[in-house]
Write a structure and sequence with these properties.
Blueprint: H1 15-26, E1 32-33, E2 36-37, E3 40-43, E4 53-59, E5 65-71, H2 73-76, H3 81-100, H4 109-121, E6 148-151, E7 158-161, H5 171-178, E8 189-192
Parallel strand pairs: 3-5
Antiparallel strand pairs: 1-2, 4-5, 6-7, 6-8
Length: 194
């Protein structure tokens, strides 16, 4: 995908220079080794419309290690630069906990401590656990209705979902009962919405 591949024809901001800047300023340079980032970075191809960004890891089909930050072009492109910086920094914290600390947590104590430190150190943008950006299609008949209700068996809290998500656990219960680590006892139960 080229940098001018968005519908408005305006170039998307290159992510690598922002990554290097944020890495220097907030991660003591530890997300780069031997001059190369520990993660690859890219803009989404336009299909990512519900989440501003994601960090994913694992293995490619050929066995190579996968560690990647993907940012949503449809969500972030029309927003101010602060949204891009906050989202990129959020995903970099995920990469930091996984690649540097070698800790498996989603938004656990290490993530939250780094997020708080970054927010306290600067006022240019805010890193948060969840974004509140407008979703494409909102205001144009609204987003599709939720087909599922996910309920936590421990605390009883329910939330609407458009699709079932395998392995999803209640964040609040994982933090309260398991120090922020995912645990089977907090798996959400999905029932079809009325």
């Amino acid at each position: 995908m080229s940098l001018t591949d968005n519908p408005a024809g305006v170039p998307l901001e290159p992510l690598l220079p922002l990554f290097h800047r944020l890495n220097r300023e907030h991660f003591e340079g530890c997300l780069v080794r031997t001059g190369l980032p520990l993660v690859s970075l890219r803009w989404s191809d336009g299909r990512m419309r519900r989440s501003a960004g994601l960090y994913r890891f694992g293995r490619h089909s050929d066995g190579r290690e996968l560690s990647e930050i993907v940012l949503s072009r449809p969500l972030l492109d029309p927003l101010p630069r602060e949204a891009l910086l906050g989202t990129l920094c959020h995903e970099m914290i995920h990469a930091w906990t996984h690649r540097v600390l070698e800790v498996r947590e989603v938004h656990g104590p290490h993530f939250r401590a780094r997020m708080a430190a970054i927010n306290a150190a600067q006022a240019e943008f805010v890193v948060s656990v969840r974004h509140r950006y407008p979703l494409p299609g909102e205001g144009e008949g609204g987003p599709p209705a939720a087909r599922w209700l996910a309920r936590c068996p421990r605390c009883g809290v329910s939330a609407p979902y458009r699709r079932r998500v395998k392995g999803l656990a209640c964040r609040a219960c994982c933090e309260l009962h398991h120090g922020g680590a995912w645990h089977r006892s907090c798996l959400l139960e999905f029932v079809q919405a009325a």
